[in-house]
Each structure stands twice: as C-alpha cells, then as structure tokens.
Design a protein that fits this description.
Blueprint lengths: L3 H38 L4 H10 L39 H9 L11 E5 L12 H17 L9 E5 L46 E4 L2 E8 L2 E3 L13 E3 L26 H12 L4 H14 L9 E6 L23 H14 L5 E6 L2 H14 L4 E4 L22 H15 L4 E4 L4 H13 L6 E4 L6 H8 L6
Parallel strand pairs: 1-2, 1-6, 5-6, 7-8, 7-10, 8-9, 10-11
Antiparallel strand pairs: 3-4, 4-5
Length: about 475
C-alpha cells in the first residue's frame, strides 16, 4: 500500500503536469495551426498559398489598400475561388470607387439642389457603333464633367444620368424593366434617373440663346435647362439640368480630376481613379453577373495560378485597316501579326519559366484558332485556356451585334464580359493599346486583378494617356 504522503506527492505531480500541458497547448496552438495549414497548402497552387500568406491577418479585419504596382486589389472577397465571379463593391470597397458611388447617390433626387448632367444618346443613336470599353472610357470623362461641373463647381456638383433612348447593344432586352438601354446589362449609374431631371422644351422660341456672366453661349436654355451643342460649350452653372450634345461622341475634358473627392493635392495614382470609373460603369446586373459566373466556372480550371498565367486578348476583325465587316467602325491600325503575339509570349516564358498557362480570347474566331494552333506547335507544355462559351461575333462594334451571328445581343455582351473577367486572372499581358478594350483589361487587371506585379507588352502601340496607364500603370515614358 502506498503511504498517504506518497499518494499526495503523486497527486501534486499530476496537477503540475496538467497545468504545464495547458500552458503548452495555449502557446503552441497557433504554430500548430500554421504548420497544419502549411502542410495542407502543399496540395494547393502557389497562388493559393500566396493568397493565404499575404492576407491571413486580414480575413477578420478591414482590408488594407495596396499600391497599384503590387496589385491594388482588395483581398477581402471571394478571390480565393479562382473560377467564380468577383467584382469590387462600389458601396463598400472604399477609395475612389466608393467616392463615386456616394457622389452618384444623393439623399433626395427631387430636391431643387440636386443637379444633373444628362448623358444623351447620339441623334443617330441607332448607328452608334461604340463598344463597351469605348462607352466606359468616355463616360469617365462625363462623370468628371458632372462632378466638377466643367471645372466650375462653385454652385455644386452634378449627378450623371443617362437618357432612355435605345442603346444599340441592348436591342431585344428581356431583363428587368426591359428598357433597351444600358441599364439592361449594367447597374444604373445613380439612384436618380431621367425622370428626376428637368425636361427639354422643344419649342424653338423657348430654346433661345442665353447670356452667362457676360459670355455669349449657344446652348439652349429654358425652364432650368441648358442644352449643349458641343462638349466645350459654356453654360449657366445655376441651371439644374444640363444635357450633353447629341452630336458629339466625346466628353468635355476637365483640368482638375481630383478636387471633387475632397482630397487635397493632385499627387494620387491616376490608374486607381481610372480603374474605379471603369469598374463603376461596368457593374453587371444580377442576371448578367450570374451568367458570367456560370461561364467562368465552365472555362477556368480550379487550379489556375494567376501569377503563372499569360493573358492574350487578341483584338482584330473591325479594328484592322481594310476590314470588310459591314456596319462596324473603320479600322484603326495595321493589326499585329499573330507571330508577333507568339514572340512576346515566348519572351515572357523565358523571363519566368514558372509560367504554365495562357488565356486566349478574341472576337475573331479564325485568329483564335490560328493562334492556338501556333501555341500547341511551339509551346506544347503551355496549358491553353479559352472562353468556352465565346460567341466570337467577329466585330467589336456595337451597332449591329445581332446581325453577325444568330445570337442575341445579351449573349454577345455576356461573352465579352466573361473574357474580360477571365483575363483578370492573368499576370502577364500581350495587348495592343490601339484597342480601348484590351487597354481596359490591362488597367482593371492592374488594380482589381487576381495576380501581383502586372507586366504588359504593347505590340500595337499608341501614346495617349489611357495607353500609358495600360502598359505602365502610369503616364509618360520611363
């Protein structure tokens, strides 16, 4: 039999061991979880490991903004699911995007103090052949015109809204209110609409020239309305509703693009602002978001690593000089050969031997097939990813999308936007900045994409500001 003293010693020793074990477990739980996660992550892609490593401390906290050169995307979202739809939330993402959202959503749309800039359709809007990216980029300048009231916001800023005339790409709309306008596909620009603005009086006697601070202007004015005949025309800032010209495709340019935000100074990354306007304009309606999501899941492999992926959005057909696509815009460049695309793909692979995938899309079916054949022959180990539901309508012009193939306009739009979203999963890009579409892809990838440290090669170069943002993330040569 053990003595009472011996039993007491054993009991005390047992208590000490239990306490030490509890202390050990409390101090070693986090490392144990980390090691377990690390072991499990050996079965995942390196992109998923980087995602967890870079953002493990942010999942239960507010996201932090990052420099656009290191991918300005906010990672508090579902981007860990590579094949699912994702788009930044204007209401909650913060930064320029949320500033745009707040400006476009006043508390009272009917207040006399709520002023409007109405983006009018062209007089011959049935033949307006501008595509998605052209509309998005020009609308950015209309936003700035509204927010700054043409560089004179002393009487307050304006809300940008659009009219309800037919948007060529929305013919046959079957969704929502079925209006054949931009809003068929995209979230409305504002909680206010054309019915909150002052209407145009069509009587010529009422639409006479007016005076503005001693300056003669040819804009029509009546009943608190100004109607611009061109983008540069001056107007009375006190009127409640200003209508843009219905003959000019271009917007009024402003000098100070940041003061509407309330920020002091001008030394902010312009690409963040431009990408925010593009993202705001291209917010898909819920039905379209669901359609894009289904298409992404059919096209994107779940193990895709964006950091090891090249994006090649080939823009050809009606973009090329001498094209024969009826009803499309005139060609703008001598389209680069497919060999020149392949050369740059090979250079990227030489630069980064870890590249293992390439995303290839185009509105031109023949160019897509030819380029894929070239890759299969020259780079057989490179995984080729395509938009499996791509309509490939053979044009980027909007006026007669439905006339090129037996498909609905909504299928063309869903197809194009799916391709855009696919390319947000790439790190390296071969594009032509002569195309606003491929430039838009590169700009959005730099700020809202899935990969880090985006690199872009421009094989059909131009030198305007939009192109510099696409290929360098900034303006001007380096």
């Amino acid at each position: 039999m053990l003595s009472t003293r011996r039993l007491l010693s054993i009991f005390i020793a047992f208590i000490v061991v239990v306490q030490l074990t509890v202390v050990y477990l409390n101090t070693s739980t986090l490392p144990m979880i980390t090691h377990t996660d690390a072991a499990a992550s050996s079965m995942t892609t390196s992109w998923q490991r980087n995602f967890v490593s870079d953002h493990a401390n942010n999942f239960n906290s507010q996201p932090k903004s990052t420099n656009s050169n290191n991918n300005g995307a906010i990672r508090k979202d579902n981007r860990s699911n590579i094949s699912s739809f994702w788009w930044p939330s204007p209401a909650s993402s913060g930064g320029f995007l949320s500033a745009i959202h707040r400006t476009q959503h006043p508390a009272n749309c009917t207040s006399p103090r709520t002023k409007y800039l109405v983006l009018r359709s062209l007089r011959n809007n049935d033949g307006d052949n501008r595509g998605l990216s052209a509309w998005a980029s020009v609308s950015m300048h209309h936003f700035l015109h509204a927010f700054l009231d043409g560089d004179d916001a002393s009487l307050g800023r304006r809300i940008l809204i659009n009219d309800e005339k037919i948007w060529p790409m929305a013919r046959g709309c079957r969704h929502g209110n079925k209006l054949e306008t931009r809003d068929c596909y995209f979230v409305p620009l504002s909680n206010c609409n054309i019915h909150h603005a002052d209407t145009i009086i069509t009587n010529d006697e009422d639409n006479t020239n007016n005076k503005n601070d001693g300056k003669t202007t040819s804009s029509s004015s009546h009943n608190n309305v100004a109607i611009l005949k061109d983008a540069k025309e001056e107007y009375d800032r006190s009127v409640r509703t200003v209508y843009t010209s219905d003959t000019a495709k271009y917007a009024r340019m402003v000098k100070d693009i940041y003061s509407w935000t309330g920020l002091n100074g001008k030394d902010y990354p312009k690409i963040e602002l431009v990408a925010a306007f593009l993202a705001y304009y291209l917010q898909p309606q819920p039905w379209l978001r669901n359609e894009i999501d289904k298409r992404l899941q059919r096209s994107l492999p779940h193990d895709l690593d964006p950091d090891k992926t090249i994006g090649v959005p080939i823009r050809r057909s009606d973009k090329c000089h001498g094209h024969t696509v009826e009803g499309s815009a005139k060609g703008e460049l001598d389209c680069p050969s497919l060999d020149s695309y392949l050369i740059e793909v090979k250079r990227f692979i030489d630069f980064d031997p870890y590249i293992n995938s390439i995303i290839v899309t185009s509105e031109d079916a023949s160019a897509t097939m030819e380029f894929i054949t070239m890759i299969q022959r020259e780079l057989p180990n490179l995984r080729i990813i395509t938009n499996r539901d791509d309509v490939q309508q053979g044009t980027g012009s909007a006026a007669k999308l439905e006339s090129y193939k037996q498909v609905e306009n909504e299928d063309v739009i869903a197809s194009a936007l799916t391709s855009l979203h696919m390319h947000l999963r790439a790190r390296y890009f071969v594009i032509t900045t002569k195309s606003s579409w491929t430039s838009t892809i590169a700009i959005l990838a730099r700020v809202y994409g899935f990969a880090r440290n985006i690199l872009v090669v421009d094989i059909g170069p131009t030198t305007h500001a939009f192109s510099w943002l696409a290929k360098l993330g900034g303006s001007g040569k380096t």
